[in-house]
Amino acid sequence: MSEKYYIKGGTPLKGEVSIGGAKNSVLKLMAAAILAKGETKIYNVPDLTDVEIMLSVIEQLGAKTNYNKTEKSLTIDATDITSVTAKYELVSKMRASFIILGALVTRCKEAIVALPGGCAIGERRVDFHIKGLEALGAKIKIENGYVHAKANKLVGTDIYLDLPSVGATENLMLAAVLAEGSTRIQNAAQEPEIVDLANFLNAMGADVIGAGTSELVINGVKQSDLHPIEYTTIPDRIEAGTFMAAIIATKGKAIIKNVFPAHLTFFTDKLLKMGANIKLVDPTTLEVSCKNRLNSINFVTQPYPGFPTDLQSMAMALLTTANGVGIITESLYENRFMQVPDLRRMGADIHQDRNHAIIKGVKKLTGATLTASDLRAGASLVVAALMAEGNSVIEKLHHIDRGYENFEVKLRLLGAKIERKDDELISPVDLTEGTRNESYL
Q: Which of 51, 246, 255, 391 has the most beta carbons within 10 angstroms of its beta carbon?
């Protein structure tokens, strides 16, 4: 079956929406949970395909899990780890599962983890992970597509990352928790998800200092010092930013709940400069609105706290109908403009030159049949379709399902005309009336 989004654009989004738990945080908390014996319970866990894949990875290692989708809670009992192998069939589906490497090698003294392979948005090498683990004392060889890591004892050391890689920072944090002595990671990633992982580890009994800065210090503890905990995941800042963009794109006015505004400071600042209205209602609630045509801006994606690459495509969708010309420079990934061909099909005026995109605002976008090529590109096409004149169809929703829970349901709560249907089973739908209409497109 091939499910697709059917969207009728032009309806201002209004009402309230609540943001779920951060995908890029909870996946790493799941890996960290295997460090402590006993039952750890994580709350605010979104129902996403990436979460399902990570569950399969840790279950394959011998951990017992119970995911209550109604309560958004996940219990992981890592008392018995019976395998140290994370197979290619699972790791290849989601790069973030490679984070299991650091946790396995420090708890079990050995890990066999498949190399994650390519990625739609560009090459993301694991060199920093490997070099850092070797600096801690792990013996590593790569063969037949797997990383084999062994370490009778890991010893703390100073590690400098050439780039502030989020994945490498997290993998090395996990490995260093049970290392002998202190580990210092310089030029570490500073993302909120790093802070969440550090808080989680410290609650378990680890000793991590400096999370949220460019220098992390992990003082090694003993296995017996770690204990299972209950912990609540932070809200997903990228989901929040996506809904902010959708509300602004449709000239709507809505409340976004369960958001940490400080995690979106740079993105919010750019939206304000474009002409959007964003008000802090309370510490975890924003009111977002827009009445007039936006103004174009320029920006460069950067590691946190700079402009997030995961929200670049959403900002591009907004720029397509803004006054003037905006320039986006993507400094992190070489293939992060995969939404451009589809936006052009909707009437956008975009010139791409390698990692630069020049967007000349047009008066309107028009509906079209579109294809989600990756997670964030797919979400940006939903934003574009909501703001466009007429009807759009978006295919390959499995990409969007990786990072957005009940996306169409939440959008409908805000009044969006969006349906998720299998076009092989039903006729197209007239979203204005909710009845079948063979002339829908």
A: 246
Which strand (E) or helix (H) includes residue 269?
helix 265-274
Helix (H) or strand (E) holding 175: helix 166-176
Contacts of 406 (CB under 8 A, 6+ apart): 47
Q: 252 and 323: one domain? A: yes
Residue that finishes a domain, picked among 197, 232, 267:
232
- Phi and psi dihedrals of 133, rounded to 5? -65, -35
SS3 labels along 394-437: EECCHHHHCCCCCHHHHHHHCCCEEEEEECCCCCCEECCCCEEC
Where in the sequence is the domain holding 390, given as residue range(s)? 3-20+235-436
**Claim to verify: residue 201 and residue 267 sit in the same structural domain:** no
Q: Does 441 map to a domain?
A: no
Q: Which helix (H) or strand (E) holds 130?
A: helix 127-135
Q: Report the catalytic residues.
A: 119
DSSP summary character for residue 288: E
pLDDT, one tens digit per residue, over 70-123 is: 999 999 999 999 999 999 999 988 888 999 999 999 999 999 999 885 444 345
